[in-house]
Amino acid sequence: MRAVIFAIIFLFLTSPFSLSSVISDIDKSDIELSTRFDGTSILVFGALSPEIDSTSLLVEVVGPSASVNIRKKVQIWGIWVNKKIAHFQDIPSFYQISISNPEHPILKEIEYKKLKSLFYDFLEINSTPEDGNAVEQYYDELTRLKKNLGKLSTFEEEVNIIDKKLFSYKVNLPKKIQPGLYKIKMTLIDQQGNELSKSEQSVKVSKVGVQEFLSYNSKNNPIFYGLFSVIIALFLGFSAAQLFRWLYR
User: pTM of the predicted model, to two decimals?
Assistant: First the structure.
């Protein structure tokens, strides 16, 4: 880890840097999801061009794609059921964005554009909204759900800049995350939000052990997975019955 940091500093000091440049690295590129996984963190670090007085650094973490349904309780034939009324197709399962300058003049505009391009543009409405504000309510509900699960964060943490040359940022991943490829994007922007330079790293999150076995067979061998689940349930039930019989005899 320390050797990598020194290598980046050396590259920064010896390379013919153009104005407004950014290079980056991360402390881990593979994460294993086991039954004991309880969340983890990724350290993002790198170097910036010396000409950074009027620029800011954006750090985005984009998780693998997933789909989310928005449901609403409706009454059908006198029975209340959860009906799917909206659908977000292929949106990031995890998204986090931070900036080095929380006082950036167009921070709200940047947030709106990012969320629109990643989430809001992928909304599919299953039924005609009863009022004009229904679409905004779907967006708000999606945002609320993801924030409650720790899978959406917008400018809640600040990117640390050291001596206007080096930066560091810690990405905290929650306990329940989807396996796949997580992209970490570093973008240097000016006061108008124009992109000046980019750098990107990737982290592979994969299931291992029992989780990998169950996940693979549930998708590729559904009959075996069903029989295996029944056998495990019967075994646990029989074991519990024998234990209670032994305790109370």
Answer: 0.74
Same-domain pairing of 39 and 123: yes
Average pLDDT over residues 95-114: 93
Lowest mean pLDDT among 44-53, 55-64, 115-124, 156-165: 44-53
Domain of residue 16: give its range: 2-206
Of 91, 85, 81, nearest in space to 135 by CA: 85
- Do 177 and 245 fall within a single domain? no
Is pLDDT of 65 > 80?
yes
Which of 5-9, 149-153, 241-245 shows the highest mean pLDDT?
149-153
* Domain identity same for 90 and 136: yes
Rounded CA gap, 214 and 207, in Å?
Answer: 10
